[in-house]
């Protein structure tokens, strides 16, 4: 699987695109073009065909225009990828009031991010250690920080907590994305695959040789009706991470924050 990297475009041009500080008006005699329209078409290509299929030529084909006409608006693929990322990050819901305190606020952030990856699986193919510094990326970071503001953490701890949750979701969602892709490519759901393989596994798995694998695997298979439950594992792991953060918060002078009152 090919990995793309954000932040590889020209900094000045990328920031101009991200913040829309400069945009050329389309010429007469051809379909109207804009940065927004080009970016939306690029996202549609990546969603439908994967990031490997994304190119300026493929986006132009989807829009029904010549490839060179895109460069009037977007300098290249690096800058385009940055704007694509910033655009999809703007899809996450950010309600002002999430009842229940900081745990519920972080849970909301994590679940929104999980859903975003499922809508746009190509996000897993983009390394964002150098993130696009666009309005949606910054607004998202601001919202995540608000989830843990005022509960006794230092500024660096606040940043570390939101980074921890974001990194966890990134890792946990991969199995869900892969399961969805496997179902699409094989025409067989995880449940159908399990039903086809489980009888043979029961015959092959010797509980005397693998007592724990047999016992736990049987219990899990009966519960999930599949080899795994990515969403259930995600929720379990998220709760354990929040438990750990709660221990940290409880060491601070204002321990009432752990009760969800803030």
Automatic annotation (TrEMBL):
Gene3D superfamilies: Homeodomain-like, Tetracycline Repressor, domain 2. Keywords: DNA-binding, Transcription, Transcription regulation. InterPro entries: Homeodomain-like_sf, HTH-type_TetR-like_transc_reg, HTH_TetR, Repressor_TetR_C, Tet_transcr_reg_TetR-rel_C_sf. Residues 32-92 form the HTH tetR-type domain. Residues 55-74 bind DNA. It comes from the Bacteria. Pfam families: TetR_C_1 (PF02909), TetR_N (PF00440). This is TetR/AcrR family transcriptional regulator. It comes from Micromonospora reichwaldensis.
């Amino acid at each position: 699987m090919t990995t793309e990297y954000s932040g590889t475009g020209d900094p000045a041009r990328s920031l101009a695109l991200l913040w829309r500080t400069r945009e050329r008006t389309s010429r007469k005699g051809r379909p109207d073009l804009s940065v927004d329209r080009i970016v939306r078409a690029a996202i549609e290509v990546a969603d439908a065909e994967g990031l490997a299929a994304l190119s300026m030529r493929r986006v132009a084909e989807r829009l029904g225009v010549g490839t060179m006409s895109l460069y009037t608006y977007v300098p290249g693929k690096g800058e385009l990828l940055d704007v694509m990322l910033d655009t999809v990050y703007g899809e996450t819901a950010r309600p002002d009031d999430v009842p229940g305190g900081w745990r519920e606020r972080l849970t909301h952030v994590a679940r929104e991010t999980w859903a975003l990856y499922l809508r746009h699986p190509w996000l897993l193919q983009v390394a964002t250690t150098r993130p696009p510094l666009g309005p949606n990326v910054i607004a998202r970071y601001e919202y995540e920080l608000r989830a843990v503001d005022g509960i006794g953490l230092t500024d660096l701890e606040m940043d570390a907590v939101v980074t921890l949750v974001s990194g966890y979701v990134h890792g946990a969602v991969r199995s869900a994305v892969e399961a969805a892709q496997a179902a699409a490519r094989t025409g067989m759901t995880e449940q159908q695959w399990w039903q086809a393989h489980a009888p043979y596994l029961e015959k092959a798995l010797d509980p005397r040789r693998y007592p724990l694998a047999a016992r736990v695997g049987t219990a899990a298979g009966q519960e999930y009706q599949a080899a795994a439950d990515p969403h259930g594992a995600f929720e379990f792991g998220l709760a354990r991470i929040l438990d750990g953060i709660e221990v940290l918060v409880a060491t601070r002078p204002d321990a009432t924050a752990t009760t969800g009152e803030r």
